Amino acid sequence: MDTLAKDYEFGPGLLKDRIIMITGATDGIGRALAVRAGQLGARVILHGRNVKRLEAVYDEIEGIDDALRPSIAMLDLATADGDAYRSLASSIEAEFGRLDGLVHNAGILGSRHSIEQYDAIEWQQVMHVNLTAPFALTQVMLPLLRKTQHPSIIFTSSGVGRVGKAFWGAYSVSKFGTEALSQILSNENMHSGMRVNCINPGSVRTKMRLAAYPAEDREALKGPEDVLTAYLYLLGPDSEDVSGQSLDAQ
């Protein structure tokens, strides 16, 4: 299954007329996926917290085709309360009536300290943005996802979300939690047609990767646009029976 996702071939209308929300869509993999989804016919809901950067992605997608005009969803995952999540869900329902895909791409790295040295407040912040916020967003979006056939939820995982490694602290623990959240949600919806999966992007040339490995040769890494195939596979119709999996993007 993992090999199939990475080697997947698709046509130009793969995501035609699908409504897909992508968190962290202003940079890195989120931005690359948003643009590619637009090129493949999707109506993209761009989530972020920086309006200028969101507008830049908006303009890029609108330039592909005026009919694919995306939508902007401003929400700070670090500070949003329940009312903010519910308001966002209501606005999406009013504009689109449903949601076909939800991609959880936003996240923060936190410090690379030992458990003994890790600051408890920062630990809570990382866990909140990386795990609690995706839970809260998914929860309010489930009614919209259930209005379509074979909806797809994708959580971004990590290699350190499968094997704990020294000095990865809250980030690693949050990704272990992400894997569990995805599996639980998949199991709870196993008879509904809803797909819930994780993707580990691997080593990608992003700002987070640079923060984690500042001395690394960035030119040796794949760019965000080079690791999208698994995401497109899980968002499209050919993965309708795939759920509860944790796939590698490369």
Give an account of the 3D structure.
- With 250 residues, this protein is α/β, with parallel strands linked by helices.
- The protein has one domain (2-237): NAD(P)-binding Rossmann-like Domain (Rossmann fold), CATH 3.40.50.720.
- The chain is built from eight helices and seven strands, in the order αβαβαβαβαβαβααβ.
- The chain has helices at residues 2-6, 28-39, 51-62, 82-96, 120-145, 169-188, 207-212, 229-235; strands spanning 19-22, 43-48, 71-74, 101-104, 152-156, 195-200, 246-248.
- Strands 3-2-1-4-5-6-7 form a seven-stranded parallel sheet, sandwiched between helices.
- Helix 5 links the parallel strand 4 (101-104) and strand 5.
- The chain is globular and about 50 Å long.
- The model has no long low-confidence stretch (mean pLDDT 94).
Q: Which whole number gives the mean pLDDT?
A: 94
CATH-defined architecture: 3-Layer(aba) Sandwich
User: What would you report as the Rg, rounded to the nearest angstrom?
Assistant: 17 Å
Count, helices: 8
Find the CATH topology. Answer: Rossmann fold
State the share of residues found in helices, binned by percent: 40-55%
Largest sheet: 7 strands, parallel
The order of strands across the largest sheet is: 3-2-1-4-5-6-7
CATH H-tier superfamily: NAD(P)-binding Rossmann-like Domain
The rounded distance between the terminal residues' Cα atoms is 13 Å
Number of domains: 1
Low-confidence stretches: none
